[in-house]
Amino acid sequence: MIEIAPGRPERPFADALRRLKKAELRPTRQRLALGKLLFDGGDRHVTAEHLHDEAMRQGIRVSLATVYNTLNQFTAVGLLREVVVASGRSYFDTNITDHHHFFYEDDGALEDIPGDAITLATLPEPPAGTQVQRIDVVVRLRRHEPVSN
């Protein structure tokens, strides 16, 4: 447990509550519970299905639709980044700093690439009336089997 003052432990949902308040989201029971799962323990990449399964294993009764809605709300207010790896397949990333990803096509694993590890020489001019929000690079990998003799 984290201590916020000497001898005074921080409450279990304090970090999730702080994040929700800062993002001006109402701290519902579901948002607090899912926020605690997402943000306790460091940066991670999750799918809605994975987070739903994790919630159920922790005894948090929440529908898959609520998990999707919550992830999309958290993304809309900047608490998460959505990483689309294929049509209909997204991960939600708790690391909201500028960075990119390796995507392992064999097993669906996602791994961070530091933002400064990739340099883009040029970008096309965005269409009139638009501006570039951010650039996401997903490097797709396939693990190869060692060559046997």
Description:
The protein is α+β, with helices and mostly antiparallel strands and 149 residues long. It has one domain: Winged helix-like DNA-binding domain superfamily/Winged helix DNA-binding domain (Arc Repressor Mutant, subunit A, Orthogonal Bundle). It has helices at residues 14-22, 29-39, 48-57, 64-76, and strands at residues 3-5, 8-9, 45-46, 81-86, 89-93, 99-104, 110-114, 138-141. The strands form 3 sheets. It has a 3-stranded antiparallel beta sheet with strand order 3-5-4. A 3-stranded mixed beta sheet has the order 7-6-8, with no helix packed on it. The longest helix is centred in the middle third of the chain and has 13 residues, at 64-76. The termini are far apart. Mean pLDDT is 89; it is low at 1-5.
List keywords for this structure.
single chain, 149 residues, alpha+beta, Arc Repressor Mutant, subunit A, three-stranded antiparallel sheet, three-stranded mixed sheet, 22% strand, disordered N terminus
**Main beta-sheet annotation:** 3 strands, antiparallel
Count of discrete alpha- or pi-helical segments spanning 4 or more residues: 4
- Spatially, the strands of the biggest sheet line up as 3-5-4
Distance between the termini: 53 Å
CATH architecture: Orthogonal Bundle
Query: Number of domains in the coordinates?
Result: 1
CATH class: Mainly Alpha
